[in-house]
Amino acid sequence: MHRLAFTKADTAKYISHLDLMRTFQRAFLRAGLPIKHTEGFNPHAFVSIPLPLSVGFSSGCEVLECQLLEPVDLAQVPARMTAALPAGITVTGCYEAVRPVKELCWVNYIVTMEYEAGAPFGAERAIQALLARPSLVVNKRSKKARTGWVEVDIIPLIHKATVEERRDSITLELIVRAQNPGLNPELVVSAIVEHCPEAAPDFVCCHRRAVLDKDLQPWT
Amino acid sequence: MNRTLEHILSRVQKPARYTGGEYNAVVKRQDEVDTRFALCFPDTYEIGMSNLGVRILYGVMTRMEGVWCQRVFAPWADMEEEMRREGVPLYGLESGDPIADFDLIGFSLGYELAYTNVLNMLDLAGLPLHAADRRGLAPIVVAGGTCAFNPEPLAPFVDIFSLGEGEDVTVELIQLYRRAREECWEKEEFLQAAARVPGLYVPSLYDAIYRPDGTMEAITPRDGAPAVVTKRIVQDFDKSYFPVDTIVPSTEIVHDRVMLELFRGCIRGCRFCQAGYAYRPVRARDPKLLVEQGIAACESSGYQEMTLSSLSTSDYRPLEGLCDGLLDWCEPRKISLSLPSLRADNFSMGLMERLQHVRKSGLTFAPEAGTQRLRDAINKNVTEADLLQSCRTAFSGGWSSVKLYFMLGLPTETDEDVLGIADLAEKVYQAWREVTPNPRRGVTITVSTACFVPKPHTAFQWEAQVSMEEYRRRVKLLRENMRGRSIKYNWHDPETSFLEAVLSRGDRRLAGVLEQVWRMGARLDAWSEHFSFERWMQAMEACGLDPAFYANRVRPREEVLPWSVTSTGVSTPFLWRERERAYQGVITPDCRKQCTGCGADKLYPGGKCDA
Prior knowledge:
The complex is a heterodimer of chains A (220) and B (611). Chain A is an alpha+beta fold. Chain A contains four helices and nine strands, in the order βαβαββαββββαβ.
């Protein structure tokens, strides 16, 4: 099994998870890099992105798994793939997969909350206080629940939250659980909107900066 | 990407439709560009990107030095709302620049119900709707596509209509525009010069004169414009541009595959079919070239599926050889091949075996009418025996679903013809029982009917459409006589067909209705969730026009038809003769058996129809 490390920015932020997998399947063909197909009635190129990224998020640390079939110099793969991908996706590395996906424990996000009229007075401290609570239960959409919603306590899912106010924005640096269950930073923003309505932003920008193991070291 | 747009995109469905940046999308440097062309498709990204014509014209213009062609699609309702609220004008996907600042804006017209999108897109661009209110040389609004063969309902909004195939005339138009700009022509001067280019129709140079009864007295040209504008065609189809390096959307579209065009035109002469007449003469592409282009397009795009397209794919003479040539390459790479537009009379065992190498999708046949008498009248030269034989071939090869398409309301149709559809479906079911290797799996026979829409430039251009009540009665009759659990019957509602009939044979006065209904909120009319029949009827009434005058009236032979200013190359006396033969129930053999003398072969000097 091989892994590709790639970044996603600009127009490519709006490519959804499923569309991105299809885009990669085609890009491997365009780059002349055959990859393993699934077995069965309708075989297709196998690719997997272990940690789906929400539409609209940018990322500097995406990972895709696949199986390159022919012997190839892995150092050349990033350039060949980047040339075969749409604007905004850059492949930065290609390597043999070593560590299992389950060791991917934490994700580091930078969440920028923008305010057209400037960051509201006291918002920074209100948010700090909110995220310092022992428990913070928010409603989350769920396809499984009958009502369409489930309650989640987000505090145990946050390892670290730093809040920093600028003139027109407040930046949250979050380290949150990656999986089983993971925490989407949008849920943190909706908790802020619910509990500190005066700190509700006009626009939110989310960037995934790093994926980390249990010791908060980069996972590759 | 600009920040306002970024804010908007976080709030709309499927934002990848609005960003550009796809693989093979062409971004040119501003300093090497002198002319910008906005190629507009008046429907959503998913529909427009599936259109081969758009991809061809994009490539033709992109290859021109100094020309930057950019794509523009109709935004979905949520995006439109956001754009209007945030003051974001309609922009080209390649640059994000407002198209109001472009030099030329071209619309592809394939469907009458997209007309309101044309108006809406002009408005979203911030441009006046009426050509007369756009005074300067830029932007010039052009429109082409099949619907341009009756340009009249859109005449006041469009500066120039381009008739027929656009590969050559688009280049000529851009060259003329560059000259006009260099020499500082007035817009009027440019339009008069454009009217002298074969294939270009400038509606503002024609006066439409009506009689008291609402029919046309005449359409008279001014300022040297020709009385009739004849469509353009590509003469050497082997040499014409094929988009090998085509854009690969980053989000799923309707036809998400390589489209390989085998030939243009059709040998069949079905009397109801506008495409069959309008795309003549027949010009085929060399099979060796097609294999090369198909392979190159797959390699360039990474698509894993290829479709062989034409009006009637099984009429391509070297079809089996072409399939073999492609399959040799496709099979080891697990690339699938699909063949739409198969005819029920020549779906052979050989073809089926080739299709079986790849994925087995459903089979669709279009007998169009339920009895031999009516099929003869419409010149759909498919016999019941042919259809049943094709179905047997498919069923014995393991297919277990067949779709059958019919029209109700065809000229001369009786209740006996309607009931013939149910009989035919039953016979198809019996054929399945006779030959299927796995009777336990069952079979699904889907019968669909749509209401016949008489179209300009066909043998039935003079005909009345049946009323909506009458169509509904025939649907009910058929429904009550459709037996068997394996047969499923779907029918299209007649309201859109009625509007199509009004618009497709409408005159210039309908422009007022289009503007009215758009102001009342009409857009995305091809989508049932946005379509309101009542709104259209209110707009017709507000303009004092009777839709039945356009849809349900038989036109006498001598009537001046609004589209008589355009020519597809097929002569009107030929169409009238075909109409008479329909009423006599006499078939016209296909063009391969005998040339019918339609006139389309005279579209190019020394040219011949390659039927």
